[in-house]
Write a structure and sequence with these properties.
Layout lengths: L1 H8 L2 H24 L4 H23 L7 H29 L1 H9 L1 H12 L6 H24 L6 H6 L1 H16 L6 H24 L11 H31 L1 H15 L7 H21 L2 H7 L1
Helix pairs in contact: 2-4, 2-5, 2-11, 2-12, 3-4, 3-10, 3-11, 4-5, 4-9, 4-10, 5-7, 5-12, 6-9, 6-11, 7-13, 9-11, 10-11, 12-13
Length: 306
């Protein structure tokens, strides 16, 4: 049994699917949290604190102890701000305005921005097959955005433009983590550190935007707290391992899986609806994921060639 678990933990394709699927749950969970009266930055702080503490306990039992020197602390602070603080704040802010399904699509754009930044910085850039998959994913995402907005009878709103900042921050964070990964550090340890480092930022934002930390709404949705904690902890455990073995561009493709999961849950459980063009975009994204999966079956060769 342990060998199967370890095999899955070393398989980039399974990690991609697992991380993307659990990431996709964040969008409908976030919409439900906001509907319950929980401030978006406070909800994001709960996610980071819960996942960070859980991963800390797991890392203590499974990974060598890491000295908290300046490089490690800097990694945690910058990674937390770039990857969690800004994307979470923006995502949960725009979800009530554009819906959880469309908000999840912003994560589907991160592979493109990450690939461009990886090529410019020459940090494990994608090979040609990987670029083809990313290109199809972008095409599918654009078809979905077009279909969603045309179905709503309007063009791009200011909220959608704000949401487009999400993939930019995600790309910078993806590339930074690969460049600055501390030598000898385990993925669970860094996942814990990065999450916990994001919490103070998010609490300050919550105080600034809301004038206080209103915790009462959390008591209204205990089941949501448990579900979010479980999904986010699993996501981050896989996320940092995928970063370690797959590199920034391959990691960023979790957005394609998350987009599909967010749309399906939005329609099936939250009463959201989308025109046919949206589902055509989903099919294109699925084809892109297929190409990326074929490319990922040769991770070592791709890393050498790229």
């Amino acid at each position: 049994m342990k060998s199967h678990v370890k095999g899955a933990y070393d398989n980039p394709v399974l990690l991609l699917i697992g991380t993307g699927a659990t990431l996709g749950l964040n969008f409908p969970f976030g919409k439900l949290a906001v509907a319950a009266g929980i401030a978006p930055p406070l909800w994001a702080a709960f996610i980071s604190m819960g996942a960070g503490l859980t991963l800390m306990a797991v890392a203590a039992a499974s990974e060598p102890r890491l000295a908290l020197n300046g490089r490690v602390l800097r990694f945690g602070l910058l990674s937390g701000f770039l990857s969690y603080v800004m994307p979470n704040l923006l995502t949960f802010t725009v979800i009530p305005q554009i819906g959880s399904g469309l908000a999840s699509l912003m994560f589907a754009l991160s592979p493109v921005t990450t690939a461009l930044l990886s090529l410019v910085m020459q940090v494990r850039p994608p090979n040609r097959l990987g670029l083809a998959g990313i290109g199809l994913g972008l095409l599918g995402a654009m078809v979905i955005v077009w279909g969603k907005n045309s179905g709503a009878g309007g063009g791009f709103s200011g909220w959608l433009l704000l949401a487009l900042a999400v993939p930019v921050f995600l790309a910078i964070g993806n590339v930074y983590r690969t460049m600055a990964w501390p030598q000898g550090a385990g993925p669970r340890t860094l996942g814990s550190l990065t999450n916990l480092a994001a919490v103070p930022f998010l609490l300050v934002i919550a105080l600034a935007l809301n004038g206080g930390l209103e915790l009462a709404p959390f008591a209204r949705v205990p089941w949501l707290l448990v579900a979010q904690l479980a999904s986010s902890t699993m996501m981050f455990a896989m996320f940092f391992r995928l970063q370690q073995i797959g590199g920034p561009t391959y990691l960023s493709q979790i957005g394609y899986v998350a987009a599909a999961v967010g749309l399906v849950i939005g329609v099936s459980l939250l009463g959201e609806s989308y025109p046919a063009a949206v589902w055509a975009g989903v099919a294109i994204i699925a084809l892109g994921i297929g190409l990326s999966t074929v490319s990922a079956r040769r991770p070592k060769q791709a890393a050498l060639n790229d």
